[in-house]
Design goal:
There is one protein chain. This protein is an alpha/beta fold. It has three domains: 35 residues, no CATH class; 253 residues, Aspartate Aminotransferase, domain 2; 126 residues, Aspartate Aminotransferase, domain 1. The protein is 38% helix and 11% strand. The protein has 16 helices and 13 strands. The strands form three sheets. The chain has a seven-stranded mixed sheet, with helices on both faces. The chain has a four-stranded antiparallel sheet with strand order 10-11-13-12, covered by helices on one side. α5 runs parallel beside α12 and α6 crosses α7. The longest helix has 37 residues. 41% of the residues are buried. It binds pyridoxal-5'-phosphate. The site of pyridoxal-5'-phosphate (PLP) has 14 residues, from α6. The site of pyridoxal-5'-phosphate has 14 residues, from α6.
């Protein structure tokens, strides 16, 4: 048995890591895994000198494109610049080195930060209580759906199993609803890109559990019938869920709770200053109106006098949805961001996000068809459909050669050859102009030859990739690659 392996597994669960303090016998590896999976020696490791390893990763890092490297107008993803001061706050040793098993008495500062962040989010969203537990937007959606189910069951309303979702919704919405056991029914959009209230009303009946809505919707349009929609859903006995991934458009200006939403998740890694992309970590806190507080997941943070602690003895809670109480580093960044901006700063975030999007929209509308109305919120969707199938992908790759990250492409599905562009508030007018000029040049080239960019990108570290293959058959390790090549 290899000593290093044994050593790791001999740490008794939940006990002190200090030698001599364990009061349970060590656990042998064989108790966890069938004997045939336990190896006696290390597998082959590639033999590379340290400088080569350093150069390899430095080269890879230089190839990476992030918002610190250039414009990243990835619609619906809010790839805005995240101030470095928030990184510094998250890296403070008192936060970064705090062990999740630390006793509440030793972690009062961290718990206060979380408690205050919950209160700030309540104020921003107009809701009664928040949980910071969910690890991402989609995770928050699942939590919201599980609470919706718990709410109806608590009232003996077991027959409510339909979740209405607009046909323009983000794919995670139907996936989350389905995972929570609901039947998903799509609601149509109008030709103007807004929710079709007539279609919604036709689909309301006693099976309605609720409705999920993104506002502004994925076309970047404000659902101006939201009060009528909320009244209709509530009138039919359903709950209204707000997918707050697009909160950047009206943070500090308008509140989901005031629009009639009962449950809402916000993506801290979009609106509230955590760099994202590449898989996390993220955070998707969920807020609820009064009547749903009892269903929030455990642990719940409570304040007694001046002291903070976690409470898990809450019988109506949907239960625990992850380890510990959230991605703490992300919460620190969001807290620092909010304290830094204050209410006036937050309003300015929304104002400039919407202004930048409309400025860019007006420029792009000169040479590309743009979906929806003349004014957008934080993003807009252009279409390259007139240049044929696949043209949006070609435009994307040409933009890479021009030094820009491509917009979100082929989403929302209701627009053919869609380019979904979200500039965010942190970009200058010069950057927006440079992007619009590059896009215009590319479109002018397509006008002459619709296949002008079939081979793009030409200047990127890698040429056009098989993206579906990369997702479905990833080669994840060097050793695997070597084995395959042998
Ligand atoms: C509208 C919308 N809803 C939900 C999500 C899911 O958020 P996450 O990626 O954090 O799971 C996204 C993410 O892109 C989104 O744009």
């Amino acid at each position: 048995m290899n000593y290093e392996y044994r050593n790791i597994f001999e740490i008794p669960c939940g006990k002190s890591w200090e030698a001599g303090e364990a009061d349970t016998p060590p656990v042998a590896l064989e108790e966890f895994y069938p004997a045939e999976f336990v190896r006696d020696d290390f597998g082959p490791l590639c033999d590379v000198a340290e400088p080569e390893v350093v150069r390899h990763y430095t080269r890879l890092a230089a190839m990476n494109f992030g918002v610190d490297a250039g414009f990243y107008p990835l619609g619906s993803c809010t790839m805005k610049y995240n101030p470095k001061v928030n990184e510094a706050a998250a890296a403070l040793p008192g936060f970064a080195a705090l062990h999740p098993y630390a006793a509440a008495a030793d972690a009062q500062g961290a718990l206060q930060l979380m408690y205050d962040l919950e209160r700030y989010l309540c104020e921003i969203c107009g809701l009664e209580a928040f949980t910071l537990c969910p690890s991402a937007g989609a995770h928050g959606e699942l939590v919201g759906m599980l609470m919706t189910r718990a709410y109806h069951r608590s009232r003996g309303d077991d027959g409510r199993n339909v979740m209405l979702i607009p046909d323009s919704a983000h794919g995670t919405n139907p996936a989350s609803a389905r995972m929570a056991g609901f039947d998903v029914v799509a609601v149509a959009s109008t030709p103007q890109g807004l929710l079709d209230v007539g279609d919604l009303k036709a689909k309301l009946d006693e099976r309605l559990a609720g409705m999920m809505i993104t506002n502004p919707n994925t076309l970047g349009l404000f659902e101006r019938d939201i009060l009528e929609i909320a009244a209709a859903v509530h009138g039919a006995g359903g709950l209204l869920y707000y997918d707050g991934a697009n909160l950047n458009a009206f943070v500090g200006r308008a509140r989901p709770g005031d629009m009639g939403f009962d449950i809402c998740h916000v993506n801290l890694h979009k609106t509230f200053s955590t760099p994202h992309g590449g898989g996390g970590p993220g955070s998707g806190p969920v807020g609820v109106a009064d009547r749903l507080v009892e269903f929030l997941p455990i642990p719940r943070l409570v304040k007694e006098g001046e002291a903070y602690r976690f409470e898990s003895n809450l019988p109506n809670s949907i239960g625990r949805i992850r380890s510990f109480a959230g991605n703490f580093g992300v919460l620190v960044r969001a807290y620092a961001y909010l304290r830094h901006l204050g209410a006036a700063g937050l309003r300015e975030v929304a104002d400039v996000a919407v202004l930048n999007a409309n400025y860019l929209r007006a420029r792009v509308a000169r040479f590309l068809e743009v979906a929806g109305e003349a004014l957008c919120m934080h993003e807009f969707v252009a279409s390259t459909a007139k240049y044929g199938r696949g043209s949006a992908a070609d435009v994307d790759k040409a933009l890479i050669d021009a030094g820009f990250h491509p917009p979100t492409t082929y989403f929302p599905l209701v627009v053919p050859e869609a380019l979904m562009i979200e500039p965010t508030e942190t970009e200058t007018r010069e950057t927006l102009d440079a992007f619009a000029a590059a896009l215009e040049r590319i479109v002018a080239d397509l006008e002459g030859d619709p296949h002008a960019y079939a081979e793009a990108p030409l200047k990127a570290p890698v040429r056009r990739l098989d993206e579906a293959g990369a997702a479905r058959k990833p080669v994840l390790t060097q050793m695997m690659a070597q084995t395959e090549g042998e």
